[in-house]
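The methods section describes the discrete structure representation at length, but only in general terms. Since the whole study asks how a given chain folds, the encoding of that fold should be made plain. An entry of this sort, consisting of the sequence and the corresponding backbone structure tokens, reads as follows:

. . .
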Amino acid sequence: MCTSNKFKSNREQVLEQGVWAVQYAKSKGYEVEFFAEDAGRADLAFLAQMVQAVIEAGADVVNIPDTTGYCLPHLYGKRINYLFENVKVSARQLFLFTATMIWVLLQLIQ
């Protein structure tokens, strides 16, 4: 979510570009995975807005990577919890989210 430095853009433009990219890929028949780059440091309200927008645009999978390794596990968990509470998802999306989190927990245990 490096809007000003990497993309030389503002939040509104990045949001529009993300939605456009998802819609374009879906219109070509592709399954779409959207990556919210640098989500570990992103403003949470904007991150939730971006995630909601790309889900509504048709993204099949939304990844929330801590690209830079900025977050400690408990802080990253708080970010995911914020998204869980502030982004409306379908039952299928919730299932995939839950399955992914269970996999992460199993990896931490080993």
